[in-house]
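Checked the freezer inventory, then went back to the computational side. Two predictions to log before the end of the day. The first one is the construct we discussed on Monday; recording sequence and C-alpha cells without edits.
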Amino acid sequence: MSLIKENLKYSKDHEWILVEGECVTIGITDFAQSALGDIVFVELPEVGRTIEKGTAFGVVESIKSVSDLYAPVSGEVVESNTDLEASPESINESPYESWMIKIKLSNETDLSELLSSDVYQDVCNS
C-alpha cells in the first residue's frame, strides 16, 4: 500500500504538490516511485524556465523504464533540486522529501484541478 500524505495535493500523473502561497513544490508520489522501480537518473528544468500545465518538464529513468514528468500547474521554475541528479535513488528512499522543482504559479486556477489525498487514493486503487 502506497503512502499518501493528507496535506498535499496530487495529479493524475502521480505527482505530489505542496502549495505554499504563490509557489508550489512538486515531486513524484510513493505510488509512482514504487511503480518505476529503482530510479537511476533524473533530468530537471533550469531555473527561470516557464512551464505549461500538462507539458513535460523533465525525465525520470529507472531500471525498468524512462518516464516524462508532467507539470500539474503552469508557472516559472524558481528552484530545481540539483541534488537529485547526483543521488536519484533518494526518490525511492523518501519520495515526499525528494522534491523536484518549485514553481511560481502563473495561474492559480490550476490548483482547483488537483486531487485531494482521498481522490488520489481512489486513483491508485483503480
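The second is the one RB wanted added to the comparison set:
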Amino acid sequence: MSITFFWILLSAMFVGLPVAFALLFAPGLSLFLEGKEMFYLLLTQRLYNGIDSFPLMAIPFFMLAGEIMNRSGITLSLVNVSQAFIGHLRGGLAQINILSSMLFAGLSGSAVADCSALGKMLIPAMEKNGYSKRFAAAVTAASSVIGPIIPPSGIMILYAFVMNVSVGGLFAAGIIPGILVGSSLMIMTWFLAKKRGYKVASQKATSREKVQAVRQAFWPLMTPVILLGGILSGIFTPTEAAAVAAVYALIISLSNRTITLKSLPDVFYDTAKSSAVILFLVGSAVAFSAVISLSGAPQKVAGFMLTLTENPLLMLLLINILLLIVGMFLDAGPAILILGPILGPIVTQFGIDPLHFAIVMCVNLTVGLATPPMGLVLFVASSVSGEKVEKISREMLPYLAMHISVILLITYIPALTLTLPKLLGFA
C-alpha cells in the first residue's frame, strides 16, 4: 500500500478541511483510488474503538473540573498566593503571571484555559502598572504552555492512549520539565524587568499575609496533591482521578458559593461540546493510524532516518526540529495522534526510552502552541489583550529561547524526566 493518503491529508488540511475530517477523508480516498475498499470496514471499526475507551474518559472529566474551577473564580485565589510570595520581585506582576500559570496547570491542564482565565485578569493589571500590552500578552502566552506539561495533562492522556505508555508515568515525568519551564521564564522575566525598569507588584508580604493567602487557596491547591498522590500511590487510576477532580471541583465551588446549581447545565453543555470534538478527533486519528500501519509508513520513515544518521543524539535533534516546525502549524493533540505512531518505532530502534521520548514530544508540541505563525494561545492572548499577533510574537522571542533551552535539556539529560518515574516504579 502506498503513502498517497499522507499527501491527500496535507492537501485537505491546506485547503482548510478540519483535521478530524481530513484524517478520515485522506485514507478513505486513498483506499478508493487503490481499489482497496474492503478496508473501509476496518476504518469504521477503528473509529468506534478509538472512542470506546475507558482511559479516554479522563479527558471529559478533567475538562469538566477545569471548566468548573475556571467559572468559579478559583483563579483569583491562585493569583493572590503568587502575589504574596513573589510580588516583591522585580517585574512582580509578570512573575505572578508565570507562577499562577504553574499553579493553574495543576488544576486544568489546558494552555488555552490558562491563557484565557489569567489573561483576562492579569493583562489589564499589568498594563495599568506600566507594562506594555504586548509584553503582558507575551508573558501570558509563554507561561500558559506550562498547563499541559505539569499534570494533569490532556495531551499526555492522548499520547498514553495512542502509544500504550503509562499515564501515571507520564504525569510523573512531566513535573520536573514543567518546573524547569516556569523557572526559566521567571529568570528571563527578571532579566527583562531589570533591563526595562519594570516595577515590583507589591511590598514583600509578611508571614501572616502569606499564611492567609495560602489558607484562602488551600482547597484548590490541594487538587494536584490529591490527584497525583492518588494516581502515583495506586489508590485510583488516572481515569478515576479525573472523576475525583470533577467532583472535588464541584464541591469546592458549591461550598464557596462561587458557582450555583442553575449554572451547572451550561457548564456541562460546554464541557460536552469540547469533549465531543476531542473524542471524535481521537477516533479519526486511531482510524488513520490503522492505515499508517497497513502502509508500512513507520518502517519506511525509520529506514529513511537511518540513512541520515545512526547517532541517537543527532536523531533526537532532527526529531526536535521536525516537532518544532510541525508545532508551528498544527495543534498539539492532532500532531501527537498523527506523528506518535510514526516516530515511536523510530526512537525504539535507537534504544531511546519510550517515556523519555513521550515527554520530549509532548513538551515540544506544547511549546508549539505559543510559536508563530499558528500558535493557538497566541490568538487567545491576542483576543484577550486586543494586541496584534505579530507584536505579541516579537515580544515572545526571548521566552521561546527559554522554551527551546528546556527542550534541549530534557532531550539530552534523560534523568530530568526519568528519575521521578523510576523512583515511583513507572520506568
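For RB: The mean pLDDT is 84. The radius of gyration is 22 Å. Let me know if you want it refolded.
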